[in-house]
Specification:
Elements lengths: L12 E9 L6 E7 L5 H10 L4 E8 L2 E7 L10 H15 L5
């Protein structure tokens, strides 16, 4: 299935993939154009599975890192007490701007 805009034109997205491969001392860049329903996560996982030498794949668009899979995936971080305190202070400030 192909994605079309409201005007009926094909939607294409350009991404820069950076592949971490054990055969090379520096990551390997690859430009990818996606035209369709597949998500960047699916394609990144497919690129990771292309070779047993691929350890991780990072996906960038316009210089911003979007995702990483494999060895470059960011681990989930457990919330800390500081996170809870900041959320609490933020909620108080929103409820009563005079306390800011």
């Amino acid at each position: 299935m192909v994605r079309l805009s409201e005007a009926g034109t094909l939607i294409m997205s350009n991404y820069d993939f950076v592949i971490h491969d054990t055969r090379y001392s520096t990551p390997v860049p690859r430009q990818v154009v996606i035209t369709g329903e597949e998500t960047i996560e699916i394609i990144a996982m497919r690129v990771l599975a292309e070779s047993r030498h691929h350890r991780g794949v990072e996906v960038f668009q316009f210089g911003a890192r979007l995702i990483g899979v494999g060895s470059v995936a960011k681990p989930l971080r457990m919330p800390t007490r500081l996170d809870a305190l900041n959320a609490s202070l933020s909620a108080r400030t929103e409820a009563d701007p005079k306390n800011a």
